[in-house]
Amino acid sequence: MLHPQAQAFIDLLVERKVPPTHTLTPEDARKFYRERRAVTQPEPSQVAEVRELSAPGPQGAIPLRYYRPLGSEAGAVLPVLVYYHGGGWTIGDLDTHDTLCRELCNLSGCAMVAVDYRMGPEHRFPAAVDDALAATYWVREQAATLGVDASRLAVGGDSAGGNLAAVVAIAARDAGDLPIAFQLLIYPATDMRRVHPSHTSNGQGYVLTSDTIRYFHDHYIDDPRHDLDWRASPLLHPDLSRLPPALVLTAGYDPLRDEGLDYARALTAAGNRAVQVCFERQIHGFITMGRLIDEANAAVSMCAAELRRALGSRPAY
């Protein structure tokens, strides 16, 4: 059963005549996504510190936002989560995921660095991957300055950001010079071919539709051959062994549900530690909707608990 609170959100979008994302220009889609925060997200939590930073990237500076949890001492060295926001590699920014980052920061006791990577259609694949990698290397290199422990560095993200986190973990393993301690993959996109059954069963009626997925895909990917590139489709990498422990969170009414499940299965089959949890009654994107959906808050708490367990941190409260 679709959760009544998720259904109420869908009904609200219809009632307010919110246009489907795929009918908008990228600029308007970004505006609507930012404005939706006031309706769906809880009030931002207070944290001990927030700083706007930047990392050098392949095509210029990459904006970052750095968080430290409540109760952390200024000189304390903390584990750190590098977080890549969702939004189909087309929409989303540091502000759309600010509340989620604050919650994860306080509940996990980890420092956070959110990454504002380049997006399509202005910057096509693999620009987002290149920026995500560059930012993560920068966090490792600046660990002492940031007051974080480079040996307890995790990567994470939701949707497109979950895709980037999975790709960064693989690239870091292959490079051998960027140890990743944990990967937090929240309803990740893992297969650009869009062939899993949930793309059909959940492709209409649950906010993220097949049309919207195609819209995001086509703004990011400009060559069909890139669908088979593991940097776009990490599920297709021929070797998924020796990767960091992972939490893969999925949603029952999400078109991406099955590719997330298959990625967790592939990680486990390759000998990795992977926990997969499906919120069966939820829709794609629910984890940022804690004002409307109670299970969003439970999901955030679960993600933070897994971060604490993996990185040995202590929650702020």
Please characterize this protein's 3D structure.
With 317 residues, this protein is of the alpha/beta class. The chain is 38% helix and 18% strand. It is built from 11 helices and 8 strands. The protein has helices at 4-15, 26-35, 37-40, 98-108, 127-141, 143-146, 160-175, 197-201, 210-220, 257-269, 294-311; strands spanning 49-57, 60-68, 78-84, 111-115, 148-158, 182-186, 246-251, 274-279. The protein has an 8-stranded mixed sheet with strand order 1-2-4-3-5-6-7-8, with helices on both faces. Helix 4 packs across helix 11 (294-311) and helix 5 (127-141) packs across helix 7 (160-175). The protein starts with a helix and ends in a 6-residue tail after the last helix. The model has no long low-confidence stretch (mean pLDDT 97).
Mind sketching the topology for me?
Layout: H1 4-15, H2 26-35, H3 37-40, E1 49-57, E2 60-68, E3 78-84, H4 98-108, E4 111-115, H5 127-141, H6 143-146, E5 148-158, H7 160-175, E6 182-186, H8 197-201, H9 210-220, E7 246-251, H10 257-269, E8 274-279, H11 294-311
Parallel strand pairs: 3-4, 3-5, 5-6, 6-7, 7-8
Antiparallel strand pairs: 1-2, 2-4
